[in-house]
Amino acid sequence: MALTGIQILKMLPKTNCGDCSIPTCLAFAMKVAAGQVEIDACPHVSDEAKETIGEASAPPIRTIKMGSGDAEFTAGGETCLFRHEKRFENPTGIAVMVSTGDNEKTVDAKIERFNKLEYERVGVLMRADLIVVKDNDGNGDAFTGLTQKVLEKSPGAAVVLMTDSADNMKAAAAACGDRKPLLFGANADNWQAMGELAKEIGCPLGVQGKTLDDLVEISGNLVEAGHKDLVIDSGARTLRGAFEDNVVSRRSAIKEKFKPLGFPTITFPCEMTDDPMMEAMIASVLMAKYAGIVVLSDLQGEVLFPLLLEQLNIFTDPQRPMVVEEDIYPLGGPGEDSPVLITCNFSLTYFIVSGEIEGSKVPSWLLIKDTEGLSVLTAWAAGKFGADLIAQFVNKSGIGDKVKHRELIIPGYLATIKGELEEELPDWTITIGPREAGHLPAFLKEWQPA
Asked: Which of the residues 202, 207, 213, 329 could staple to 366 if both were Cys, CB 3.0 to 4.6 A apart?
């Protein structure tokens, strides 16, 4: 049962030291109770209190970490069924599978595409997260060798080792060192041996059932044996089966607090079809309905990019707009005679406006005002992009030291505040720019300082 902020406060040192980056212990306790920070952020709390609070405040879907450093991947941590209820915490991991049954050329090509395919959108770098190494024929040496190859050629990949042989798993896991792979292969026949290995080397364990009921039994046994870091797979290899099992698992964990299913899921679209486009469609459905990891047979730009966009859309917090930092942004190497424009800090607005300015080939200064992530009109209506606030920002930004003219170009949608802004900035000429960013190139090419 979740603890309240006051209950958590009673177990804290109550020194208000600020070492957790939060000014008071009460504020910290409230954030822990709300699931916004982990209790581990307090360096002075006792181990006993940490265990009590951590267990009570743990999300229904346990947070699982694998990999390390730049290759770390986090799954789970979810607390709701629908994003509008709160938010989804950790994006679905996108993985590509290589196996001992693949020839060397195929493996090299998959690894190369994993490393190369990455995209930037609204300031977010998007790419695949994991490589699944599958023991296809029970050859331990080949499995370990393939694992070593993946580790060497893809330092940015979290690794999933997939075999039902505890001996083969142990050898391959040893080759991973500090990379902390997910050991996927615990089933009804080997769960004890796999569980002991996972405990011994401190790695999360992947559990596969033949059916959802079979999965519940195996997972329940592992939970009773003290295993906490699990990733689960019901064994379904059809879209309908995987979809239904994911929904049942999520609802059972969230609504019923059913611990055997309170873990992130791993799904295998790569084993459900031979058609790459159908595989991508299946992955997109399972990503929307609770998959913690989707495993693809290969990575191609036309398949990966749409999935990454879906991932970005689903896992962007709807209550926290994506923003860029308030600052002066030089675009195209501007000088003292270059135009000065201003807009809000909503990421999408910034990247559209900056893209059009760069496309115009007119070096410019772009002032980004903090509007708490609201768009231009919304920020103005909310009183966060008014003449007084814009004037304060312009005066403190230092833009006056970078240009010799005094002309500020404002978005066309703010035309009504031109007079107010001229009163607030008497030394500046206020010019109304176009309403749509797409008209900026033509506007800037004709612009001359007033």
From this structure: 329
- Please check whether residue 249 is in contact with residue 236, taking contact to mean a CB–CB distance below 8 angstroms: no
* DSSP-assigned beta bridge partners for residue 336: none
Supply φ then ψ for residue 298, to 5 degrees.
-160, 165
One domain, residues 175 and 236:
yes
Beta bridge partners of 409: 341, 431
Q: Tell me whether residue 397 is in a domain.
A: yes
> In sequence order, what E strands does 302-439 have?
327-331, 340-344, 364-369, 407-410, 429-432
**Encoding tokens for residue 352?**
């559209």
Q: Give the span between the Cα atoms of 197 and 371, in whole angstroms.
A: 51
Are residues 342 and 292 both part of a single domain? no
Residue type, 370: D
Which residues, other chains included, contact 253 with Cβ-Cβ below 8 Å and sequence gap of 6+? 60, 61, 259, 261, 262, 263
Shared domain check, 279 and 381: no
Q: Token pair of 8, please?
A: 């958590």
Q: Does residue 353 form part of some domain?
A: yes
Q: What is the CA radius of gyration of the chain?
A: 26
| Per-position b or e across 120-155, b if 16+ CB within 10 A of its CB | eebeeebbbbbbbbbbbeeebebbbebbebbbeebe
Tell me, yes or no, whether 227 and 299 share the same domain: yes
Q: At which of 266, 284, 315 does a domain end?
A: 315
Q: Show contacts of 283-286: CB within 8 Å, 24+ apart.
A: 283/94, 283/307, 284/310, 285/239, 285/243, 286/92, 286/239, 286/242, 286/243, 286/246
> Phi first, then psi: what are they for 420, rounded to 5°?
-60, -40
Report pLDDT for 266.
98
Are 248 and 366 in the same domain?
A: no
CB neighbours of residue 189 within 10 Å: 10
CATH at 357: 3.40.50.11600
Structural domain contains residue 321: no
Q: Are 82 and 117 a contacting pair, CB within 8 Å?
A: no
Q: How far apart are the first and last CA of the chain?
A: 66
Can you tell me the mean pLDDT for 195-202? 94
Same domain, yes or no: 225 and 87: yes
Task: Fill in the DSSP letter of residue 346.
Answer: B
> Which tens digits make up the pLDDT trace of 218-256?
999 999 999 989 999 999 999 999 999 999 999 999 999
pTM for this prediction: 0.78
How far apart (Å, rounded) are the C-alpha atoms in residues 74 and 67?
9
Number of compact structural domains in the chain: 3
Per-residue model confidence (pLDDT) at position 68? 87
Residue range of the domain that includes 152:
64-315
Distance, in Å, from the CA atom of 341 to the CA atom of 357, rounded to the nearest integer, reads 10
